Amino acid sequence: MSLFDLPLIPDVPVHGEAEGYPVRRIFCVGRNYAAHAAEFGNEVPDSPFYFTKSPASMILSGGTAPYPPGTSNYHFEMELAVAIGAPVFNCKAEDAMAAVYGYACALDMTRRDLQIAERNKQRPWDLGKDVENSAVIGPITKAADFGAVAKQTIALTLDGATKQSSTLDLMIHNVAAIISHLSSFYHLQPGDLILTGTPEGVGPVAPGNAIEGTIEGLSPVTLTIGAPA
């Protein structure tokens, strides 16, 4: 018996399955496209680095989320999400892809002004990154149905205008390298999502904006920005 009930975290729909994918943890890779690092004057990292979003910050594609409090510079970031489907710990890159269950389009919504302010003070990025409704996840396509992560286009439109357009092969650290590296610090398990970073072209949103993110071979992710709440 609990003192109170927690809101349910929605399972992510999976193509071809009646049951959804429950989310356990959300890891996010920072600065994984060189052009995105450059647009903010940041160095390209030698190895992957991470921040996290709590599953409570996750919503499914297709909804409306209010413009969040405490920011005047809320940004979109379009990303490939990797869904882990098997336990993996301290694995080699050549063995990493066996742990992948599937892939999805995802948005890493960011209070950019707070992220930068905290970073400049050498503080954690939580206020900028772990924002309510900020991890927006589209339906998962199983790895076998998607195929190899290669030169698929990754793009985002804001009210129909293209803002981000790149290809997955331009990730600095590919999916296998990320899983290998991250699994040396965590016992990754089914239910863990990894957002693999965003290409250049990120920018602000305002109430009323409609976002659509696409990756070739995956279902799109969509989000409407609502009034502040």
UniProtKB/TrEMBL annotation:
Looking at the record, the residues that make up the Fumarylacetoacetase-like C-terminal domain are 26-224
Tell me what this protein is called: FAA hydrolase family protein
Report the superkingdom from the record: Bacteria
Which molecular function term from Gene Ontology is one that the record holds? metal ion binding
Matching InterPro entries? Fumarylacetoacetase-like_C, Fumarylacetoacetase_C_sf
Q: Keywords, A to Z?
A: Hydrolase, Metal-binding
Establish whether keyword Hydrolase is in the entry: yes
Q: SUPFAM superfamilies from the xrefs?
A: FAH (SSF56529)
